[in-house]
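Q&A log
Question type: sequence-to-structure
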Amino acid sequence: MANTKSSKKDLRRSAKRRVRNLATRSALKTYVKKARVAATAGTPEVAQSALVAAVSALDKASQRGIIHKNQAARRKSRIAKAANKAKAKVVATA
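Response status: OK
Response body:
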């Protein structure tokens, strides 16, 4: 257990950050899931807007240090690839 005043304060601050980071990570998963579902099922316009929202959220999270920048890049790449694949599929069938 923490002894000094500053270490007790550090524990309080890290607990607050942890809760905030958990909420952000959960929201990120939701954004990525929506983008992936829209890419496979929805129209290209819906998929594009979901992709833009997910990319924005991932960039913000990586800038704030909630996730690593390489993890953000990997997730963005994967959802963009899925969106492009769905878009090509729609164009090929049309």
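Response note: Helices lie at 5-41, 44-63, 69-93.
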